[in-house]
Structure formats: C-alpha cells, structure tokens
Amino acid sequence: xDQESIVYGCIKDVANLAGDxxxxxxxxxxxxxxxxxxxxxxxxxEMFAIPQVEVGQGNYQTEVMHFGxxxxxxxxxxxxxxxxxxxLLSQMYWVSATVHLETExxxxxxxxxxxxxxxxxxxxxxxxxxxxxxxxxxxxx
Length: 141
Fold this sequence. Notes:
This protein has 2 helices and 5 strands. It has one domain (4-134). It is α+β, with helices and mostly antiparallel strands and 141 residues long.
C-alpha cells in the first residue's frame, strides 16, 4: 500500500485595510501564476482557495487563503516542497502562514511562519520557519 501524505494549512493577511486592494490583487496574481495540476507539481492553483480582489463580507479582519492536497509520500521530498512554499511566500503579503504535514509513518508536523513586523511585504527578506512535531498512535510492542 502506498504511503499517503496530507498537506494543508493557510496563509493569513490583513483584510480590513480600507480601499487597499493592492495586497489582495498581488496575492491573487501570485497564486494564479502557480502551475495547473495537469502535471505533478508540488504546489498548484487547484490546492488553494484563491482570494477575490474585491473586499467582501467573507472576512472580518483577516484574509485567509487556505490550501490542501494529498500526495504520495511527499515527506521524502519535503525540503523541495518547503523551498517552493517559501518562494511563494516571499512574493506575497502575509501576516502568518501555517502548514500541516500528516504522514502515516512520521506523524504530524506543523510549520509556522510569522512576519517580523506587522506583515510581510514581497521581497522584504526570507521568511523564518518554526517546526513542531507530534505523533499520535499506540506504541507497537
């Protein structure tokens, strides 16, 4: 049986900046520039909830761009996945980002990025990640 990995999480940004659609437009354009899922890319458009440019009633104070995908044993290529995700974050406006990696053999890993200031601005430096690991299940005796 193949090993399945589930990757999911969200990127959060400020939603209530009056009249400022620049942030939402930039983030939308960056996510739309991802490849389609026709081939097997690590990150693709289809795995993201792509934000609308218009300010709507859907968000109170935070713009939440959630994502998720199922992979075959992506943990063996996890460094490449993280590198591509961080490259994506470097082009976006965001306050924080969280990625959960659920693996059958290695448990659940949570990766968190938080901006140094009030928010990350595209091109303002490399994001810093914090990783937490947990494993649930019975011990084999």
